[in-house]
Amino acid sequence: MIWLDTRQKNFEKKISVLLKNRASFKSEVEQRVREIFKRIEKQGIKALLEFARKYEGFKGTSKDLKVPKREIEQAEKKLTDKQIKAIKLAKNRIEKFHKRQIPKGYRIKEGAGYLEERWVALNRVGI
């Protein structure tokens, strides 16, 4: 197991090396994810609940998948300033980490036009 500490001087270098080496297991993970998406596409909520139970220990029903807005607002009011600061820090770190994982696209001039490949993050994913 590899431990990383953001306070270490060489943290950025270590995380960069890990991101570069991720290609070795990337294809296996992508294949598994494709299979999961295919099952969810074919079987809908039934498959989604099955995977949520298998990978996340989810014990609810389809009605439990969405947290009511009122419940979220009530929970937010209970947070301390320290907790809010910690959540924002975690959010920023997660975003920074995953932005580095987005493959770089390219653009080629071909005749009168261009051929281009772009990678764009999804704002949200759902069924």
Question: Could you describe the 3D structure shown?
Answer:
The protein is mainly alpha-helical and 127 residues long. It has two domains: 10-64, no CATH class; 67-121, no CATH class. Helix content is 57%, strand content 8%. It is built from five helices and two strands, in the order αααααββ. The protein has helices at residues 11-21, 23-43, 45-56, 69-77, 81-99, and strands at 106-110, 113-117. The chain has a two-stranded antiparallel ribbon with strand order 1-2. α2 crosses α3. It is extended. The model has no long low-confidence stretch (mean pLDDT 87).
Gist of the model:
With 127 residues, the chain is mainly alpha-helical.
The total domain count is 2
Q: Report the sheet-strand fraction.
A: 5-15%
Number of DSSP strands? Answer: 2
What best-fitting shape do the alpha-carbon axes yield? extended
Number of helices: 5
Helical content, roughly? 55-70%
Q: Classify the secondary structure makeup into a structural class.
A: mainly alpha
How far apart the termini lie comes to: 35 Å
SSE run: HHHHHEE
Q: Could you list the spans in which at least 5 consecutive residues all have pLDDT below 50? A: none
Oligomer: single chain
Q: Please state how the strands of the largest beta sheet are arranged side by side.
A: 1-2
User: What does the largest sheet look like?
Assistant: 2 strands, antiparallel
For the CA atoms, what is the radius of gyration? 20 Å
> Average pLDDT across residues?
87
